[in-house]
Amino acid sequence: MSHTAHIPSHRKPRRRSASTMALRAGVAGGVLSTIAVAGAAGPAHAEPVTETIEMPLISPEGLSHSIAQSAQAQQQVAFDLELQAQEDAAATKAAQVAKTAKAEAVRQAEADKAEAKKREQAEERASRTAERTQLAQATNASSSSESSNDNASSGSSSNSSSNSSNASGSVGTVIAFLKAQVGDAYVMGATGPNSWDCSSLVQAAFRQVNIDLPRVSQDQSTAGTQVGTSNLRVGDILYWGSAGSAWHTGVYIGDGKYLDAANPSKGVVIQDLSGYPATGAVRVL
Known about the structure:
This protein has helices at 18-41, 60-152, 155-180, 198-207, 217-220, and strands spanning 185-186, 195-196, 225-226, 237-240, 248-254, 257-261, 268-272, 280-283. The longest helix has 93 residues, at 60-152. The chain has five helices and eight strands, in the order αααββααββββββ. The strands form two sheets. It has a six-stranded antiparallel β-sheet with strand order 3-8-4-5-6-7. It has a two-stranded parallel sheet with strand order 1-2. The protein has a domain at 100-145 and 163-285: endopeptidase domain like (from Nostoc punctiforme) (endopeptidase fold (from Nostoc punctiforme), Alpha-Beta Complex), CATH 3.90.1720.10. By secondary structure, the protein is an alpha+beta fold.
């Protein structure tokens, strides 16, 4: 025992305030109430937890394999996309090449057609030139023969016979000239040698036998003797429209046919008079 044990403590005991004691009493009461409520609300018999959930373990090898598969799949997708792009580009290029080839083929075909047409036209012109040369030679020969006949003839009866022979030869010359122009183009206002309108062709034909006809259809329809259409002879000038205001002319060549520079789509042609009857006719030979 300490030698000071018998000495009463000189320290005064601490006095707790009423508020502190009340606070502590309240806290203790609240804790006890909470325990009581929890005990009443809890299950009468709580069962212990015996099942555990284990997290899957991934080995380093498995993780590496998964990563490799993912990378391979991405590479395959990229390869497929690139291949598809190459195929699309090739298809586009092939279509463009085919389109270009087709356009070139069409252009070449048109060029060949135009060249063939030029050759055909050149051949036709050469043929007409040859026919005109022969016609000129025949006309000159006919004129020489007629001149000899005139010199050998005497008297009025002989002169009449010569005039008749001259008329027959002149008609043949006119018809031969007209037939040599078949196939020429029709061009309004043209006067030859490879394109005509209706009245310029008639005028040029009769000029071959030194008959000077008016230039236009209206005047040609009154240039000779009116003979109608029921008593036609080869060489008569046919007209469509009334005399003095006709709008088209041609020449009767026999067998119910006539020759004219018809229109731009036909050119110079031989046609059947029954298909397009003339209004009237005049005779100048």
